[in-house]
Amino acid sequence: MTYIIAEAGLNHNGSIDIAKELIRVAAESKCNAVKFQKRTIELLATEEILNAKDDRFPDFGKTYREIREHHEFSLEEYKSLKELSQHYGLDFIVTPFDTEAVKFLDKVGVDKFKLASHSLTNIPLLEFIKTFNTPVIMSTGMSNIEEVDTAVSILKDYVDLELMHCISAYPTPEEMHNMNMIDFYKERYSLKVGYSGHEIGWLPSICAVSKGADSIERHITLDSKMNGFDHKLSLEPKELTKMVLDIRSVEKILGNAIRNVNEIEDITRKKYHVSAVTKKDFKENQIIKMDDLIFKNPGTGLSYFEAKELIKNPLKIDVSRDVLLTKKMFK
């Protein structure tokens, strides 16, 4: 079953109440996990960038620093989010953006770390996170294959690692999705491979499931018209529910790669498969030859190979022309 991660991310807009509501939405939509993000603001960027004027979201702050700080939760708030996630049966996943965030989240006790695509080349962070006994999911957007090779080599032998195919384009154009990377990564690294999507809608996510993605990660929001970083690219509650239902339907359609005749097929099989039918009348004790038979509907009698074996024996009764042969007719 595909593991579905509801990425609450920053779409709580700094409100613990909205964050908790997003957890409830993830649970009601029958996702497997909910995910948040943790940054140590002082370690995020240079002072110049942090203190630069930023008028994108006036309700959150006037500088990049203020906007980022507005979205951060305390240790106790994170513990309450984890507790609520556990109450709903959801795994609690958080993306650490730096080593201090890893330490912080270790105190919270997350089920998995999720590494954002841009952290794939943050070697000090990778080296640090591998020292923790916590599973890691790592996105691979905006990277070349040599960088992915390096990151995998650092983590693979130390943590339970899963990769995520990801295209860091917001929104991602249809022709850029390149879902064949899922097969490529699985063959190259022998790891679980998921898909982290930034599309409008969820058709590419469904395609990823059909390609064998082990997990799907999508941003969620209470309302895509809300002010903030990722709302426009996020699924609203009803959309999330529909995507999850579509994924579960695709899983049923994909099946298990075992070729059996199911009950419904068996009805049609008995109607349209062919069986051995006599071309002429026969008396008791006569031997039938294959040339004396024709094969036609229905499929409830003897198959070709069954008939070929049975006609070595004499008939036990008289058999008329155009009669379906059965095992009981032979001695």
Short description:
The mean pLDDT is 97.
Which CATH architecture of the largest domain is right?
Answer: Alpha-Beta Barrel
- Bin the helical content: 25-40%
Beta-strand percentage range: 15-25%
Structural class by sheet pairing and helices: alpha/beta
Largest sheet: 8 strands, parallel, barrel
Number of domains: 2
**End-to-end separation:** 52 Å
Residue windows where pLDDT falls under 50 for at least 5 positions: none
Can you characterise this structure?
This protein has 331 residues and is α/β, with parallel strands linked by helices. It folds into two domains: 3-254, TIM Barrel, CATH 3.20.20; 263-329, Type Iii Antifreeze Protein Isoform Hplc 12. Helix content is 35%, strand content 15%. It contains twelve helices and ten strands. The protein has helices at 16-28, 47-50, 64-70, 75-87, 99-108, 123-129, 145-155, 181-189, 203-210, 237-254, 263-272, 304-310, and strands at residues 3-9, 33-38, 91-96, 112-115, 136-139, 161-166, 192-196, 215-219, 275-278, 293-296. It has an eight-stranded parallel beta barrel, surrounded by five helices. A two-stranded antiparallel ribbon has the order 9-10. Helix 1 (16-28) packs parallel to helix 4 and helix 4 crosses helix 5. The longest helix has 18 residues, at 237-254. The chain is elongated, with a radius of gyration of 30 Å. The two termini are 52 Å apart. The mean pLDDT is 97.
